[in-house]
Amino acid sequence: MIKAEDVSLVYPDGTVGLKDVELHIEKGEFVYIIGPSGSGKTSFLKLLMGIEYPSSGSMQVLGQAIHKDEEKGIRNIRQQMGPVFQDFKLIRGRTALENVVLGMRFLNLPKAEIYFRAEEALQRVGLKHKKSSYVETLSWGQGQRVAIARAIARKPTMIIADEPTGNLDFDNAVNMLDLLTSLKEKDTTVIITTHATHLIDELDEGRILYVDNGNIDNLSREGAAL
Amino acid sequence: MRNPFKNTAYYIKEAKTIFKVDLSSNILSILSIGLIFFILTLILTGWLISNNIVEIIEKETEISIYYNEGLEKDSLDNLLTKIGNIQGIRDAKIVSEDESYDRMVDILGMEAKILNHFENNPFSSFIEVKIEMESLDHILNELEYFQDIDYIRDNRQVIDRLQGIISIIEVLGLILFLAIGICTMIIISHIIRQGIYNNRDEIYTLKLLGAPDGFIQLPFFMEGLFLTIIGGGIAGVLWFILIKLGYGNIYNLLPFMPLPHGDEFVWPVITFLTIFSTFVGIIGSRFGLKSIK
Ligand SMILES: Nc1ncnc2c1ncn2[C@@H]1O[C@H](COP(=O)(O)OP(=O)(O)OP(=O)(O)O)[C@@H](O)[C@H]1O
Ligand SMILES: [Mg+2]
Predict the structure, then answer these.
(1) How many whole angstroms separate alpha carbon B231 and alpha carbon B214?
(2) Which of A111, A206, B24, B259 has fewest C-beta within 10 Å?
(3) Interface predicted TM-score (ipTM)
């Protein structure tokens, strides 16, 4: 599913985003990527989505090499992903429903199916009553849930959420993680980043990867309590 | 996408949304495109009018051939046929002494009385030859070998000057037309780039979601087309009003100019606007999209 071999990411200005990452993530895994700000969590997600390419080493996602000559293949794997961006990246001037629908327009689905899935997804994140509201009128938390609805409606092979608990207080952060956990289908891989290390105790399932200074390591739950 | 038309309704709706999101700047764009097109149609009209005038003048270019007065009827007919056969001659006919006299009466009008002072008709008959203006030299050359010709009045100076003016008008018109046409194209691709720039976040988002380039670009393409076609429509309406209200006045003011009737331009100009605005819309949009990558 995801295979990183000796992957490093150096930004054009010389900043090292990731160093010698060795990592396998299997289909259906639930993975938390935890680490301090600036440690390289988003950098890893950028590699996953083909927004950045490895400076050295090799990376495969859903069988597709992440490489600058693989534009078409990368587009293809993006279509199989359900990303929830840190800033949501909703499309202004459209309603919540239209945003969710827009995420599926180009996926070769029948129109009826697209609308059915969109309504269903909004229902699951508890926003059905807001489907006709323009996204710029929604509260922060509602916007986040629209972004999640857009991701899950695509029935992705992989859900990727960058810092979904970022702006939330403790209780709401836990609720958000519960929501994401509940949305996971059996075969869906879920990857969630957070710098809220204190949340780890609340997580009772999933694998935890710890990122520090560009290095990614598996973390035992005891270690996280430090 | 397997079926390229599947999302057509979506593209149109999306183009409308893009339009609405930047409403004021889009309205300004339409207005400026409309005005540019309007200027372009004015140039086109001016060009059409001058071409028309030139055509009329060219048709009326004539030279007068005065022949040996003692010529027999047969020889005269023979001469006339030979002249008529020269390349570049449209028509050659004999203008009799009486007719020359009558013409002079027409030209002099009130002053025609002075002609009464002559005992005999002071005018001689001649052959009036309508020619294609550009063949003048060639025709004169040919005529040199004809006997029985006394004298040719070729209006050379007038014709030379006219030809100079005509070629200036043609070149100027073409240059202006090209300049404004290219200018329109550039402005439209800028407007489309602007639209893309205003929507760059959305475009980036769609890319991250794996949308194909065509899917992302088509609404912008349609919006560009839409802007230029509406702009073309505005120019058409403005121009139509102008022709209806203004041209009639000019037409009446300059009775001595061989101005064509305004209605003659309506279809050429409307056809031109439709084709040109669609063409510019397509090319401009393509440029706009290409340059953004
Ligand atoms: N485009 C870029 N050019 C140069 N440096 C970058 C770029 N993007 C990220 N970096 C740097 O790479 C390092 C890792 O950044 P990254 O965004 O992956 O951190 P993060 O773990 O996601 O942090 P946070 O928790 O604050 O979101 C940082 O030092 C950052 O400044
Ligand atoms: Mg980050």
Answers:
(1) 25
(2) B24
(3) 0.91
pLDDT in tens, A99-139: 999 999 999 999 999 999 999 999 999 999 999 999 999 99
pTM: 0.73
DSSP code, position A94: S
| Total number of domains constituting chain A | 1
| Domains located in chain B, CATH noted | 8-57+161-290 (no CATH), 62-154 (3.30.70.3040)
Report the distance separating Cα B286 and Cα B274, nearest Å: 18
Q: What is the DSSP string of A194-217?
A: ES-GGGGGG--SSEEEEEETTEEE
Among candidates B2, B17, B204 on the partner chain, residue whose Cβ is nearest the Cβ of A93: B17
Domain membership of residue A181 (yes or no) is no
Cβ atoms of residues A137 and A152 within 8 Å: no
Residue span of the structural domain in which A139 resides: 89-155
Contact by Cβ (8 Å): B129, B95: no
C-beta atoms of A93 and B211 within 8 A: no
In a domain, A30, yes or no: no
Residue A61 maps to a domain: no
Residue B260's nearest CA partner among B268, B269, B251, B252 is B251
